[in-house]
């Protein structure tokens, strides 16, 4: 089904949308590159779906503009934008067969019957549903229905594909399978995908780039690795995955970073940017999986002692909560294969981490 790449660069400039006294999107600017898989990630009420609806044309911005290859499109109705759309609830016509559902956008565009036949079969082959083309939606599983919706959204070769939490109604196993399927489809067809979700794992595993939103504003965007490993704020660090926050005051500078103190304890932190001045208050985000349980043979740069208050077994890892004197509860994720033995409530543990494991973040 792949043809010459129809995708386009999309630019959003200073877009604002207000509903009554609620500012759903607040002066947001973002560029989506040709062929990119961009995920809009944020909690409920962050503005991600409103932004997607503005791109689609179902919601008009109060201020700002949207450009497709430098051409303003904010004034255009949805049908004039040539964008494919996939919704959470599939939105299939229950009385039409799979073939007829996928053919619908082409019939609306008054395409010749031979072309419709060819393109529908190619689209269904792409989502591996050619053997189901004569069935009605109610005769399909949830995953198959979502594949039909994807085929329908791509059959007319849209400029880009908009996906509004399309997998959220599926069970965990099927959701994981369709995540892989969507990524495969993206690589194969070369379309620009703009994907909305509140699921952090989904965003990390599928995206070329993640745009994290909060209260209608763009907080940070970058590759999954960049946003996860180098969060700029406490919000991003805690929303995209789980983080512990170690707060203290910079006591001195060292060759590649600084030493910060909390109470009587001292910790070494490598600096990935400008070194904060001595005497400044800082917050360090430390991921649970970057903390080890120190043994007698270990020599980590930083150590902290506490007592286990919670622990859970997740097959590949133990997830612990260790209560510490100065930082309160610290979450730790330890691989089970080298944990030695199961932790016990009340057990005293020595936690360790490298000076490069944490990331200085701004309070937010």
UniProtKB/TrEMBL annotation:
One of its GO terms (molecular function) is ABC-type polyamine transporter activity. GO terms for cellular component: ATP-binding cassette (ABC) transporter complex. Keywords: ATP-binding, Cell membrane, Membrane, Nucleotide-binding, Translocase, Transport. It is an enzyme of class 7 (translocase). One of its GO terms (biological process) is putrescine transport. Part of the ABC transporter complex PotABCD involved in spermidine/putrescine import. Responsible for energy coupling to the transport system. NCBIfam families: potA (TIGR01187). Belongs to the ABC transporter superfamily. Spermidine/putrescine importer (TC 3.A.1.11.1) family. This is Spermidine/putrescine import ATP-binding protein PotA. It comes from Microvirga brassicacearum. The lineage of its organism: Bacteria, Pseudomonadati, Pseudomonadota, Alphaproteobacteria, Hyphomicrobiales.
């Amino acid at each position: 089904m792949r043809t010459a790449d129809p995708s386009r660069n999309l630019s959003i400039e200073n877009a604002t949308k207000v509903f009554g006294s609620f500012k759903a999107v607040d002066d947001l600017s973002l560029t989506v590159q040709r062929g990119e898989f961009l995920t809009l990630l944020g909690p409920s009420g962050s503005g991600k779906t409103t932004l997607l609806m503005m791109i689609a044309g179902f919601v008009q911005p109060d201020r700002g503009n949207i450009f497709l290859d430098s051409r303003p499109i904010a004034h255009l109705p949805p049908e004039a934008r040539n964008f494919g759309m996939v919704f959470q609830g599939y939105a299939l016509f229950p009385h039409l067969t799979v073939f007829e559902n996928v053919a619908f956008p082409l019939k609306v565009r008054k395409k010749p019957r031979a072309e419709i036949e060819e393109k529908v079969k190619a689209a269904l082959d792409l989502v591996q549903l050619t053997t189901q083309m004569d069935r009605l939606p109610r005769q399909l599983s949830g995953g198959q229905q979502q594949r039909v919706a994807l085929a329908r959204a791509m059959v007319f070769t849209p400029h880009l594909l908009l996906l509004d939490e399309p997998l959220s109604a599926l069970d965990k196993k099927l959701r994981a399978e369709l995540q892989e399927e969507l990524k495969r489809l993206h690589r194969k067809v070369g379309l620009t995908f703009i994907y909305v979700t509140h699921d952090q794992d989904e965003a990390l595993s599928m995206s070329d780039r993640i745009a994290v939103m909060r209260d209608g504003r763009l907080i940070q965007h970058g590759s999954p690795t960049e946003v996860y490993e180098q969060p700029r704020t406490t919000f991003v660090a805690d929303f995209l995955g789980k983080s512990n926050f170690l707060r203290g005051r910079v006591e001195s500078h060292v060759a590649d970073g600084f030493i910060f103190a909390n109470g009587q304890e001292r910790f070494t932190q490598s600096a990935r940017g400008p070194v904060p001045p001595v005497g400044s208050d800082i917050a360090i985000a430390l991921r649970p999986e970057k903390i080890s349980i120190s043994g007698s043979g270990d020599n980590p740069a930083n150590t902290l002692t506490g007592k286990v208050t919670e622990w859970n077994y997740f097959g590949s890892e133990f997830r612990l909560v260790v209560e510490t004197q100065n930082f309160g509860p610290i979450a730790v994720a330890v691989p089970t294969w080298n944990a030695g033995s199961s932790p016990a409530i009340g057990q005293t543990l020595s936690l360790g981490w490298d000076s490069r494991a944490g990331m200085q973040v701004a309070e937010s």
